[in-house]
Amino acid sequence: MTDTVWVVRHGQRQDTVDPDWELTAARRHDPGLTELGRWQAWRCGRFFADSDIDFEAIYCSPFLRAVQTTAEICGVIGGTAWLEPGLGEHRNSEWFDSEPETLSFETLANYFDPIRDDHEPFVVPEFPETHDEAEARAGETARRIADAHEGRVLMVGHGLTIGGVVRGLVGSTEGVDAPLCGLTRIDRVADGWELGFSGKTDHLD
């Protein structure tokens, strides 16, 4: 089974620096990355490459910002990534009126070379969901991914994803931090998991 899980939050998103972005956006809940966000994602890839860290499998949320982050990482380290909705954003009814719209898996796979759409999702989120339900869903996704592979796996998603994956594997969110393009590592120990670190950002200095 998987011995190490890495989790990365997406980079800086467009709507955080351009408050008018959503006025003309085709999908106002699915912003992409800024130039800084792409650089942050590239730096994640450089960290993995410089540290000789490779992955048996990579999974990412289907939201554009997470897909772009994943594509930048794969552009440095190589490999491909599967789209996994179970790692997606919190379906918070205070943020969204209905299920947030994203590009189709086929479109994402056609546009971003490292992205593959030939994976049957482990978990499909429901709308709406509470914070606890969203974390539980991400945690269940992480457990299923970890059981399906050996070696190292990488999951790319959102702030919610970081907490959910750690909670799902370790059993608690104690010590979790989720800055943009922060790195979290979880290691298998005996029959359980241990949080190595969370929110590492020195690769962005």
Describe the structure concisely for a colleague.
This protein has 205 residues and is an alpha/beta fold.
What does this structure look like?
By secondary structure, this protein is an alpha/beta fold. The chain has one domain (4-16, 29-200): 3-Layer(aba) Sandwich (Rossmann fold), CATH 3.40.50. It is 35% helix and 20% strand. The chain contains six helices and seven strands. It has helices spanning 21-24, 35-50, 64-77, 105-111, 131-148, 159-170, and strands spanning 2-9, 57-60, 81-83, 115-116, 151-157, 183-189, 192-200. The protein has a seven-stranded mixed β-sheet, sandwiched between helices. Helix 5 (131-148) packs across helix 6. The chain is globular, with a radius of gyration of 16 Å. This is Histidine phosphatase family protein. InterPro entries: His_Pase_superF_clade-1 (IPR013078), His_PPase_superfam (IPR029033), Phosphatase_SH3-domain (IPR051710). It comes from Halonotius roseus.
Walk me through the topology.
Layout: E1 2-9, H1 21-24, H2 35-50, E2 57-60, H3 64-77, E3 81-83, H4 105-111, E4 115-116, H5 131-148, E5 151-157, H6 159-170, E6 183-189, E7 192-200
Helix pairs in contact: 2-3, 5-6
Protein name: Histidine phosphatase family protein
InterPro entries: His_Pase_superF_clade-1 (IPR013078), His_PPase_superfam (IPR029033), Phosphatase_SH3-domain (IPR051710)
Pfam families: His_Phos_1
